[in-house]
Amino acid sequence: MTPLPDDSSEHALKPSDAATGTDAIPPLVWGLTPSPVPEEQPSDEPSIPVLAEFPLEAAPPDPAWNGWDVLRLICLTIVALFVGVFAVLLIARATMYPHRGLGDIARNPLIIVAGQSLAYFLVFAYMYVLVTRERRRPDFFTAIHWNWPANVIVYVLTGFILSVALQALAHFLPIPKELPIDSFFKTPAEAWALGLLSITLAPLMEELFFRGFLYPVLARKIGVPTAIFLTASSFALLHGAQLMFSWGPVLVIFLVGMVLTVVRAKTNSVAAGVIIHMAYNGTLTIAMFAATDGFRHLEKLNQ
Fold first, then answer.
1. 173: how many CB neighbours lie within 10 A of its CB?
2. Nearest-5° angle of CA 91, CA 95, CA 100?
3. Is residue 191 within 8 Å of residue 295, measured between CB atoms?
4. pLDDT on residue 29
5. pTM of this structure
6. Residue 80 to residues 71, 116, 140, Cα–Cα distance (Å)
7. What is d(CA 33, CA 5) in angstroms, rounded to the nearest whole number?
8. What is the pLDDT of residue 280?
9. What angle in degrees, to the nearest 10, is found between the helix axes of 215-222 and 224-238?
10. Which phi and psi (to 5°) does residue 128 adopt?
11. Dihedrals φ, ψ of 258, to 5°?
């Protein structure tokens, strides 16, 4: 190994070199001879600054979830409905109906409404975990495009007008005299319970799933027009069992779903759809309330 030169060496740094900076380090360092640095030549071309190359972080997908997540959400909703209704059945039997069978208790619409409400809370909890924990989005409502609208009254009026218009249309469609959903309006307590559910948790959870989770996944995969149609169709099928899959009332629900999904696509707001949905259901509930003298004469609904 070649020893480092000292000040007396012929290779020592000269004052002239230090001043010009052409030889800032000794020429021999640990036996390695540095290559001479070529002197920069003047150029007429404008200098372009060279940016350091750093890996660019990819933009997060929107929505953060995918079709498999939506499928898991559907499966969990089915399980949650079963668990919610069964839990309420056990509680009702232990506290109110100790001598009745579970099948008999299950025919009580109040039990179904209570079980469905419990299931909604379970599903919402999973939605929150899916977005904030699994998909690591810090703000749940930002991720689902909640985007509360500035002029709420416009969407309330939209729900009211939609309800009146579609009820007028229903008079020209074949609507069965009795539907499965009519069984929830046998007593005032049942009518009150279903009415409150239909203007609170039900529209909120349906909009979160269909317009918050399902629609954006479909729109990303197959485009907005087809996604609107499929989302509205799925929304109508959800209510099909309550309507005996009769095409008249199912068509009405399909049109409601179309309006709600178009609003979601145009406004980028799930909250706007929730307001319209609540106003739509609220208009129907108020109309039933008025027609039955405050739910005291429910037999008038079948006249």
1. 14
2. 85
3. yes
4. 41
5. 0.79
6. 14, 8, 21
7. 13
8. 98
9. 140
10. -65, -45
11. -65, -45
